[in-house]
Amino acid sequence: MPISQYTPEQLRQRLQEEAPVMLLDVREPHEFAYAKIAGSILIPLQQIPQRLEEIPSDRDVVVICHHGMRSQQACNYLEHVGFQRLINLRGGIDAWSLVCDASVPRY
């Protein structure tokens, strides 16, 4: 089964609901420092294998990067090691800034 994809609008709607979701940002620290979605947790893509215990398996995890490519890679890896509740943010933080929150800087 393919990994679920959220548009920025779908993520915004989800964040307005009560259901807990983890926002996992897999960009590099300098990118995260420049632009992020409030409440996101940073685990750079290369560090995911060593930091799996920080990622919950009992709730949905929305994975975020710049344009949606690294986050898709992270989803594929996490699915491979047994995670099931994964959602990729299509278009990444750039699409989030364009569609949902213009206060988030684009780069």
UniProtKB/TrEMBL annotation:
InterPro entries attached to this UniProt entry: GlpE_sulfurtransferase, Rhodanese-like_dom, Rhodanese-like_dom_sf
Sequence ranges assigned to domain Rhodanese in this UniProt record: 17-105
Coiled coil: none
PROSITE patterns found in the cross-reference section: RHODANESE_3
Protein name listed in UniProt: Rhodanese-like domain-containing protein
Naturally occurring in which organism (per UniProt): Methylomonas aurea
Taxon lineage: Bacteria, Pseudomonadati, Pseudomonadota, Gammaproteobacteria, Methylococcales
